[in-house]
Amino acid sequence: MEGQHKYVLDESEMPTHWYNIVADMPVPPPPPLHPGTREPVGPDDLAPLFPPELIAQEVTGERYVEIPGQVLDVYKQWRPSPLFRARRLEERLGTPARIYYKYEGVSPAGSHKTNTAVPQVYYNAQHGVTRLTTETGAGQWGTALAYACALFGLDCEVWQVGTSFDTKPQRRTLIEVFGAQVHRSPSRLTESGRAFPEDHPGTLGLAISEAVEVAAQDEATKYSLGSVLNHVLLHQTIIGEEALRQLAKAGEDRVDLVVGCAGGGSNFAGLAFPFLREKLTGAQDPTILAVEPTSCPSLTRGEYRYDFGDTAGLTPLLKMYTLGHGFVPSKIHAGGLRYHGMAPLVSHAVDQGWIQATALHQRECFEAAVEFGRVEGVVPAPESSHALAQVRREALACRESGEEKVIVAGLSGHGLLELGAYADFLADHLEDDPLSEDALVAALAEVPVL
Q1: Cα(155)–Cα(412) distance, integer angstroms
Q2: pTM for the structure as a whole
Q3: Cα–Cα distance between 188 and 200 in angstroms, integer?
Q4: Kind and range of the H or E element at 102?
Q5: pLDDT digits (tens, 9 = 90+) for 202-250
Q6: Regarding beta strands 131-136 and 287-293, do their DSSP bridges make them parallel or antiparallel, or are they unpaired?
């Protein structure tokens, strides 16, 4: 157990630029298409929803994008975030592998989501926007955007997926503490919401439709997305950039495996894309693995096609792995992983074979999370438990083979507001609910044919 446990960077060592993976992709990703014309979207198509800086970041080919000084100043409240060597977990598993985890639960919102909420609100504030609308699943994104809006003086309106709204009241309260207004989705406030019964469990796609619909009707209101789009993934790459610097401090000159949970793709990409740069440029050759739930397996069982990012078909068509924009996932506790699609850049990387994907049942994930909490002292978010369960598998394989692999995992946030989920697990009330083949075929039937 001797040795350093925590690797930290001084604020002066924090990255000053976000990294854009598109610059190093040997094959460029397919463009988003206008939902009406089916032609590639241009800046004017996105202007009703986003400020010009975010539109520019969405389409840029530059390798690095400078982080504004005011954003860096806010980042310093919690960044650089720590990289931990999971020495006690290694001992518990009896593995020769060296396990590191990058912990984003130290942010004000308790997750990685604040990394993009702050710049998104900052850019909107620069253009006189007074209100932002958004969706949220488990509530991490809604919390982060509410906090960022409070910092910059913007109103914030959040549509929360019905299942999470009903089962995670503490998260809803935290969003309201930060000053935002929260609606259960589907709501009676939008045409998109009224198309569904009030007791519908909701989906992230439907919550997106409601938030987009409201934003499009008011010039002083813009929409803010917590995952999926290029500029969101861009902002999250500060995670992986810091991790590379911290691993160097730990004396590691190579990484064998990078693991992250994947729902919409932003947490995973934030850690993985700087390592993918090292892979594509030949500096390192890590295996990069995205882990998703078996109940919402977009990467492992979805199809790589153009589909809408929302349920009502208001967004551009995105080339991504999708289960169909009308897909309604089961009520698993990892609410942030219940999205029908996957970020186009992550999808493109998987399609090209640069990144791999796997899916796990939620009971195994909670087993790994409880074990992790008991030895490392951090209660993981249910989403992050998927990455930790895969790390456990890999570490036990190293115990059998004797390989001394270097494993880096993303711990995207803490689960202190998800203790109801842990209570269900400890009481043996959680069930695995893998997606059936019939449900998959029915959901994919709604995907547009181009």
Answers
A1: 26
A2: 0.96
A3: 12
A4: strand 98-103
A5: 988 899 999 999 998 998 999 999 999 999 999 999 999 999 999 999 9
A6: unpaired
